[in-house]
Amino acid sequence: MTDPLRPTHLGTMRERNLALVLGGIARHQPVTRARLAELTGLTKTTVAAQVTTLEGLRLVSGALPVRGGGRGRPGAPVSLAPGPVAGLGLEVNGHYLAACVLDLTHAVRLRESVACDNGGREPHETVAALAALARRITDRAGDAGITLVGTAVALPGVTVEDHVNAPNLGWEAVPASALLADALPAQALGIEVDNEANLGALGELWYGAGRGAGSYLYLSGEIGIGAGIVFDGELFRGGHGAAGELGHVVVDPDGPACRCGGTGCLEQVAGLDAVLRAAGVPDGTGRCEPRLTELLRRLDDRDHHALEAVDAAGRGLAVALVGAVNLLDPDTVVLGGSHARLAPWLIPPIEKAIALGGGKLRGRTPVLRASTLGAESAVRGAAGTVLTRILADPLAIA
Amino acid sequence: MTDPLRPTHLGTMRERNLALVLGGIARHQPVTRARLAELTGLTKTTVAAQVTTLEGLRLVSGALPVRGGGRGRPGAPVSLAPGPVAGLGLEVNGHYLAACVLDLTHAVRLRESVACDNGGREPHETVAALAALARRITDRAGDAGITLVGTAVALPGVTVEDHVNAPNLGWEAVPASALLADALPAQALGIEVDNEANLGALGELWYGAGRGAGSYLYLSGEIGIGAGIVFDGELFRGGHGAAGELGHVVVDPDGPACRCGGTGCLEQVAGLDAVLRAAGVPDGTGRCEPRLTELLRRLDDRDHHALEAVDAAGRGLAVALVGAVNLLDPDTVVLGGSHARLAPWLIPPIEKAIALGGGKLRGRTPVLRASTLGAESAVRGAAGTVLTRILADPLAIA
DNA sequence: ACGATTAAGTCCAATGTATGTACTAAACAG
DNA sequence: CTGTTTAGTACATACATTGGACTTAATCGT
Fold first, then answer.
1. Per-residue model confidence (pLDDT) at position B18
2. Whole-angstrom distance, CA of residue B243 vs CA of residue A289
3. B128-140 confidence digits (pLDDT tens)
4. CA–CA separation, A3 and B125 (whole Å)
5. A84 CB near a chain B CB, below 8 Å?
6. Residue segments in chain B with a per-residue pLDDT below the cut of 50
7. A294 with A281: CB under 8 angstroms?
């Protein structure tokens, strides 16, 4: 083990307090310097100095003075600057590419997505298409006077030693970071790559159904099933960054064999492919989206096979989630991906199972919700991580 | 959400660097000031000042100079002071009470335990017995010139709003912290209460089978089955401090009903009571220990019922652990409690199941080991948490 | 054996951040 | 208009780390 701690010197102290003040502004804007001093525990003098620095970085700007507040001199509140500084989120998925620009106030400034089949082509083609999308977005950002200060890319795969394995894209040990650094336009600075389930979890936590949850579990259900685990606002990545493989939890020891080598994995029971097959929805073009729509139509029509298939998926998810809930004790569980759209049929049986299994011993059971951002959670989460990066270390953008 | 961050002022900086230097000494003792400066990134001047402070706190002391090292002036190495400062760990369990004193070098200075049936008596009686044990230990510590600077107590239960629920002790909403603060001798300062599985996990991580693991899972198997989850050296407590209820993971959806309300919980298959019952070991006096010994004897004799019962337990544990491993991706899994003694029969089937289920996709599978501290892991862990408290904030002991 | 060299530890002025007090500015209450 | 209250600013002060000069103590080369 190396020494994990770093020395604290004068500059470190300043950085930390700068981030503290910026965080205070972010959470309480518009806010006066005096109130910030109370909130942060720093003195008025210090806060004023830090705010001046932040204004120089164009991260905060003066808001309209609030008149008629109370007795003394009215404060001159400051807020996060909605204008110049923003983060770029990108996403590669099996069926589409997406981009999204969030400014410091977490407002979506720009967004764009392209439907295309990324599973059927070479990594460099996909990366080139993403780069084209990114160029369009960065050009639009430039026109709008927005300065992008960081980029995060969501991929449906796991990074192992700088190489990405993404089965649904057909990627094996692809040096994604290097490819992206070459292909993306120069305005896309500080590129970071992360798992789509992880970033989706954060997107849903910050902007969607997970808002306000202290600890929560996000279930990203597509063909495979992944989970994003958030604890105290931070992602739990596990020992090797591969936590959250909920898809291969055993839900039925006597169930069907899985490509992972086990038997009765959740994916074989509640993965989208498995559900569609069990419901008897025909293969069609091979694209999932229309098949999912067809499944939803049949569910609305109370088709017996469809209902039975979704019910079985619900039972499987319930077993897996009871295990996960007992192990992790989250506040909130959010169903994302395709499973968000099946939520009306999935949530009741799962809630019942969680209430029965172990919840009784612990007092409270987690709230179960469907994703509210739909397909957008991962891009939003990606752009959001850039913002938290800025909030944590404001000087890094200079 | 409140503002989680605190302001950093000059004193904070000093505290952090003091802890940094102390940590450097702890990990590299004996070590010279010059080497510490390299390790910490601080200057020689600062390190020297901090070391002087630490000597004043009696936390470090000069070691023997190493002669014949290299060219220039030989350094005057310092080490953690083995003498004065130490932490006290206490444990209440169904069948015994235990105490243990660790000095800063993590050496066991004193230890003592008492067998007694704590499940069959009132909380205040158990606390009084623990206090008597603690008094003996603190007296011995005083005689040996040891100053105790903190206390941690391991209980087989969960703390909910300052009240402890411990089914195996028959405790329901017992205000344990308050009782202990009253009953324990004055030398037992800064009393903290934590779950036995959590502290056992830390004990095993620091001093036992988990040493060197970055992320790991500790399974505390007695009548119930709990888990301690450690990630980057820190306990994962979950949303409400009740993470790790592995005992109620569903391992067989068609299995027997459990007192938690669910069906097919791990505890019903692999809990000690369940195994003993399945193996046909008679109830005897009701105490577990002799029954476990009897079970081990039968296993050695290749008794058919015993082997079958333990094998079933292994299969159940395998299902639960495959789930936990997929979700958490730990380096190492340690079997503790009674299950450590059954490990020779349990580990092979579990390892096979983990290798099959999901491990294939991820490349590496965690190492599976039996606890090496046996019944002592929780007390050791308790005393150890006191030490880490000191290392993290050396000034707090003054 | 003696000086040159190398490295550890200490002394002290310099740097830079937060603090505290005093001061100015701007609103409201009477 | 005057007194009161609160926001923000100016400036001297306190204090932890820094960096360079200095002292101390060992080995190496001759």
1. 97
2. 37
3. 999 999 999 999 9
4. 45
5. no
6. 1-3
7. yes
Three-class DSSP category at A5: coil
Contact, A1 CB vs strand C, < 7 Å: no
- 10-residue averages of pLDDT along chain A (398 residues): 72 96 93 94 96 94 74 89 91 93 94 91 95 97 94 90 85 94 93 92 94 88 85 79 77 78 83 90 67 92 93 90 86 91 92 69 78 93 96 88
A156: preceding bond cis by omega (within 30 degrees): no
Question: Whose CA is closest to B52, among B70, B36, B66?
Answer: B36
8 Å CB contact between B270 and B311: no
SS3 A365: coil
C-alpha angle B222/B217/A231, rounded to 5°? 115
Question: Cβ–Cβ of A323/B328 closer than 8 Å?
Answer: no
Match 């600062």 to its residue by tokens: B46
Q: How far apart, in whole angstroms, are the C-alpha atoms of residue B135 and residue A278?
A: 66
CB contact (8 A) between residue A239 and residue B214: yes
pLDDT in tens, B67-78: 666 788 888 999
Whether the bond into B290 is cis, omega within 30 of 0: no
For position B231, what pLDDT does the model report?
A: 84
Which of B12, B160, B327 is closest, CB to CB, to A324? Answer: B327
Strands A225-231 and A215-221 turn out to be antiparallel
Q: Which nucleotide does the CA of B70 lie closest to, via C1'?
A: D27
pTM here is 0.86
Q: What is the pLDDT of residue A1?
A: 42
All residues of chain B having their beta carbon less than 8 Å from the beta carbon of residue A355 are 261
**What 3-state class would DSSP assign to A237?**
coil
A242, A244, A329: residue with CB nearest B240: A329
- Residue A367 distance to chain B (closest CA, Å): 12
Protein residues contacting strand D, judged by Cβ under 7 Å: A 7-10, 32-35, 44-45, 48, 70-77; B 10-11, 13-14, 17-18, 41-46, 49-50, 65, 67-68, 70-74
DSSP for residue A256: -
A247: distance to nearest CA of chain B, Å? 8
